[in-house]
Every structure is written in structure tokens, then in C-alpha cells.
Amino acid sequence: MSIEAARACLQRGEFAAAEQAATAALAAGASSEALYLQATARRYLHRHTEALSTLEALQRIDAGHARLYQERGHNLLALQHEAPALSAYRDAVSRNPALLASWKAIARLTRTDPAWRELAREADIQVRALSQLPPEILSGQSMLHEGRLERAEALCRHFLRRNPQHTEGMRLLAAIAVQHGQLEEAAFLLESAAEFNPANLLVRLDHVNVLYRQQRFTEALAAAEALQEKLPGNPSIEATLANQLIAVGRFDEGIARLRGLLEKSPGQPSLLLTLGHALKTVGDAEQAIAAYRAAMQLRPDFGDAWWSLANLKTFRFADADRELMMACEAAPNTAQEDRIHLCFALGKACEDRADYDASWTYYERGNRLRHATLGYQPERMARRLRRQQAFFTRERLDACGGGGHPAPDPIFIVGMPRAGSTLLEQILSSHSAIDGTMELNHIPALAQRLDGHGTRAEGDGYPERLANLDGATLRDYGEQFLAATRIHRQGAPFFIDKMPNNFRHIGLIHLILPNARIIDARRDPMDCCFGNYRQLFASGQEFTYDLTDVGRYYRDYVALMDHWDRVLPGKVLRVQHEDVLDDLEGQIRRMLDFLGLEFEAACLRYYDTDRAVRTPSSEQVRQPLFRSAQARWRHYERWLEPLRAALEDEPDAGRRGRTGR
User: Fold this and answer.
1) Pairs from 480-483 (Cβ < 8 Å, separation ≥ 24)
2) Is the distance from CB of 497 to CB of 413 less than 8 angstroms?
3) What is the per-residue pLDDT for 658?
4) pLDDT exceeding 90 applies to what percent of the chain?
5) CA 612 to CA 661: how far, in whole Å?
6) Across the strands, what pairs with 522?
């Protein structure tokens, strides 16, 4: 018997046979899908307690399986356990928003409870939208959210061959392209869909969001303004326009629009969260805190709002805050995404009280829950970094010399997250000749374009495709980077791109911008890796949620940086965070010498520089140097052996270069 047989029996309503087939598949070695089918069959056989036990087993091996939470909700509801059923359904749609049955159940369970007014409204909207989709597109959306991209794409393309101008089909294919990193293809699909169906607001909003993801902020703002002019007063358009104004640095206008929306519709926690993020970025911590607290008053279990307070870094929770967070985290109807955010916030709250046992419990739980939602593959990442070393030899780089754009304007700060790069950017952007910008996505996006859609085989993608590019093409890529980043500059001769992950692409940067300067922000490996482990990132950085993964990634990062030193000697200046703490002025002079700039005293008072900062360190870099983060990991040392073991293969990792160039 096979999984296919179990699925076929379920479809025919032969539930006993389906359970038997699933059990046989488990005995033959099948795991997660067989467990899911076994649980489903047991529910139809009204053996709900057994079904729930089966789902527990499934969760232990595949906690990211969205349908298991929907199935759990069905069983709990059958047993009349409504509160935990609602929690299960919310967990399901947080992982897969295309689960129509879960949204219908949420709508039923929240309709008469004023405490769930906003959730009930959202559920009704989702039910109406999903119910109107063709079955193929609804299935494709579900597959997209479950990470089955190839199957979703095949189903969607098959549907579009028969319905070539179907708007929702094109939206789905664009969403799949976004997941592949093919933002240009996604933008083209949405532009075409808008031509076929110009009245479809969702297509146009999707297009604005794709432009935003491409960091084509000027175009995204223009598109949002055109929508607002055509449909004034639409809340979705107003919120999108506010975000685009903030993206181009027009913070006052964006914040004013958010406040205007909240005056019209005050009961929107997500909008208050967005307002808080904008206020934090411009340095108004007091008003940001007020916005986050207002969001939590509307929804006490709003994990993202609690984490946003913790993520200010300088904020300290009151005892009442901590007790309320603990209650929300333990509540059975707290959605998984909220639970993850609450765990990280509680880790910080308990750490501030020096309750390291409790702090570790929450950090470990939050990381375990987040890790289960991701598909991070450490060996795949290691292979990507090894491909960089194999391709970018000294001989190849010498042979490609003379290409690229000659502009010396860009300064790239690269390295690991949580290594002090925001501090270096704040220091350097205090110099009159340097503009600070943000973590720009243009270099990773170019690497993705060069890799090609679906290209994953070694030797047939990025960086290997660079071997076929001539000097003119490389110069064009450099010019495109300069043009796309111009919106972030304020007129200084130099500007900073602080995307940490650009350490993977130093060879590409050298080919397209040979005169760009690169600074590697380096920090003690245990401090750096544990700093990542206790940080919940908004997106990306999937390697940070497991101690072994983050240690291995750090080791691979050091190995690749050593390679760049060998093949591009003098190209990268390594700046050790601990050296900056020990000798601020000396390290500032060292960096400015590397950049060919005169010393300016304003760099010493970097915390007085008034600029928007969009990273988790935004509040920390607005104050003088402090050492409280040094060796923080020692409070958790007894739990960090997997991290230490992962770093052991790189002796003295992270410390090399302290007295070097």
C-alpha cells in the first residue's frame, strides 16, 4: 500500500481503507504525508483523540506542515474545544493563507465575539476572496505557501495555457516568480495583468509591492500615487502610499498619512505597528513605543508589537509587561507567529532581569519554532560559497581587469549581521563626504538575475555565467547600480551600501565597480553568533535560528573572506568591532585613510548625526559606545556547546586582522 493509495481511498470516502493504506505506508518508511493522511482518515472515522495523537507525531517531525494545524482544528472543534481549535486554525492560515476551510472556521468561531472583531472581519474577506477562485488557482496558492513551488508553477502554467488572460492566474504566477527571486518576471506579469484588467486593484497593489522589493522606490511611489489619485480614500491604497513615501525618505508625509488612516479607523493594530516602525526609523523612540503599546491594547497577544518594543534594544519591560507576555505565550489560542515573536521578546525581557534560565528557555523555544517554519539547507549555502571560491581565482580576476564602471562612489560594508556594521555606517555617514543609505538589495538581485530562473546546478548559473560577459556589459551593470541607488543619496561624493550578505558577492562587485571600497565588519565569533541567535529578523537570515547552522555559516563566511583577501589583496579593509570599542578615533582614522578621506571630528560624535536608521541597532547607534553587549554569550555558555563545536574548525575565527591592514 502507498501514500497514493491512501489519498485515493480518502477521495472515494473509503476511510477505513485509507487509514490502513496510510499505516502500511508508515511501516514501509513513509513519514509526514502518511501521518497526515492517517490523521485525516481517523477524523472521518470519528476517532478524534487518535487523530490528535497522530498530528502530535507529525508536528514533531514536520512542524511547518500547515494542514496539520487545520486538521487539528477540525478534530478539536469536533470535540467542542473551541478556543484551542481557533488557535489551531490561526496557526494554519499563518503558514498557508489559502486554506479556505480554516478561514471559514475562523469566521464562524469569531463572528459573535467583540474581542475578535478584526480577525472576524479579516476571515470574512478571505472567505469571499478565496471562494471566488478557480480550484486550480486555489490549489496553486496553497502549494505556493507550502513551498511546493515547482508543482504550483506547473499547475498555474497549465491553467494559464487554457485561460491566458486570467488575472488571478497571472497574480499567482507572479507570486511564484517572487519566491524564486525573479522580480523582473513578476513585474512583467503584473504589468500585463493590469493591461488585461485595469480595474483590478489587487494587481496594481501587487505591482507596487514588487517594485518596492526591487528597491525601485521612485517607480513604486509613482504607481501608488497614481492609484491614490484614481481611487482617493481607499484605505489599502493610502497605507501602500504611506509605505512608499517612507521608503523614499519622505517620513513626515508617510507618518502623517498613517496617522490620518488611524484617525478614520483607529482599531487597526497592524497599522499602528507600521507607524511605530516608521517613528523608530527616524529616531522618535517615545512615539514609537506609544504606537506599539496602542497596538497591544487592541490585541494583547500581538507578538510583533511586543517584539518591536524588545527590538528597540534600549527598552526595558516592566514586570506587568513580562507577566502579560508570559500569559499570552502560554495561552492555547495564541497563533504560532505571535508565539514566536512573544518568545523572542520574553527572552529579552528575562535577560534584562538577569534571569538567564528563563531567558534561554524562551530564546530556544522561539528559535526552534521559527526554524521549523523555514527550509534552510546549510549544505546548499556552503556549496554556494564554495562556488564563489572556485570561480573567482586570481587569474580570472586579473583577466577581467579593466571592465566595469570606474566610479569610486560606493562604499560596501559587508559581514555577518549583528557584527557592528550599523555602527560603522553611522560613524562614516557622519563625514561630510559620505551619505548613509540602507541595506540595498541591488547586488543580491543582480546575482539572482545572473543565476537564472530555476538554475541550481553547479557550473550552470551564477557566478559561472560571468565568464561569458564582456567589459561593456559589466560596465552597464555598474551603471545600473549607480542609477538605481541615486534616490538614496543626498549629494555627497560617496555613499554606503550596508547589505551584510554582499560578502558573498565581492567578486561580482569588483567586476562591475572595480573602484568601490569594501569594509568587512567583524566581531568576536561567539558574540556575533549568539547575537544572531537572540535576534528575530523580519525576513531572510534563515541560518540564524539554529546554533549549529549559525556557527557553520560564520565559519564559511570567514573562509570566503580569507579567499577574497588572497585573490584581491588590499581590496577589503577588516574592522574588528572590539578594536572600535578599544580605540574609536584610531579605527575611524584607519577607515578614512582607506577611503582616501581626511579625518573629521563629527565622526567621533556619530550619535549626534540625524539620519534614518532601518536596522535593529537603530537606537543603539544613537548613543555613545557601550560594552554591555560584549561577552553576553557567557551568561548562556552552558547551552551553547553546539555553537562552539560548529566554530571549532575555524581556530581564532573572527579575530584575525585586528592589527592588519
Assistant:
1) 480/442, 480/446, 481/405, 481/410, 481/442, 481/443, 481/446, 481/512, 481/513, 482/405, 482/407, 482/409, 482/410
2) yes
3) 37
4) 74
5) 31
6) 576
